[in-house]
Design a protein that fits this description.
A hairpin with a 5-residue loop joins strand 7 and strand 8. It contains 3 helices and 8 strands; from the N terminus they run H-E-E-H-E-E-E-E-H-E-E. By secondary structure, the chain is α+β, with helices and mostly antiparallel strands. An 8-stranded antiparallel sheet has the order 1-6-8-7-3-4-2-5, with helices on one face. The chain starts with a helix and ends with a strand. It is globular, with a radius of gyration of 19 Å.
């Protein structure tokens, strides 16, 4: 009985460690100040928990593909702080960053917004966006504290897929002195 229990515990430890490696928990977060160009965004509004944006994002990506728009960079613009607002009421805009300007008419409920070019604190992470709130946001918060800046409520995450298995996420935090 003792050997079975020990085997189960060891198996759980190995599986947990494998999951952490697969998600990129041990990968480095790099932070820099960078000026981003104007962001031409096509999106659909999502209301609800942020971890449930994927179906909405895939809907916009599918529409972009059908309309021959390059959506190599998708995004989520999280408008509310989940530490303050009730999760069922969180608002976000999710969709595609279209680098070339398009005047294509958008079907309802898709929308377009253009964010002016500006300076951001940019965190880059090669791990899963699912662990971003645990790994990246803490590192960014330390950077803001170190520079005596306050973080704004909204954050933009840009997801750039290099191939089927490799995704890099850029976290854009506005600088508010």
């Amino acid at each position: 009985m003792r050997k079975i229990f020990l085997g189960i515990i060891i198996s759980l430890i190995i599986i947990s460690f494998w999951a952490l490696i697969s998600l990129g928990f041990f990968k480095e977060v790099t932070i820099k100040e960078a000026t981003y160009p104007e962001l031409n965004l096509i999106f659909k509004e999502h209301i609800g928990p942020y971890h449930k944006i994927l179906p909405t994002l895939e809907e916009v990506e599918k529409w972009a593909e059908q309309n021959k728009l390059d959506c190599k960079k998708s995004f989520a613009h999280f408008l509310d702080d989940p530490g303050i607002k009730e999760h069922s009421r969180l608002k976000s805009h999710v969709g595609c960053w279209i680098e070339e300007a398009k005047n294509l008419p958008l079907p309802d409920p898709l929308q377009r917004k253009i964010l002016p070019g500006q300076k951001y604190i940019v965190a880059e992470f090669l791990g899963s966006p699912a662990i971003g709130p645990f790994k990246v946001y803490g590192t960014a918060k330390e950077y803001f504290v170190e520079h005596k800046w306050s973080m704004q409520e909204d954050v933009i995450e840009i997801y750039e897929r290099y191939d089927q298995d490799k995704l890099k996420t850029y976290y854009l935090f506005k600088i508010k002195n």
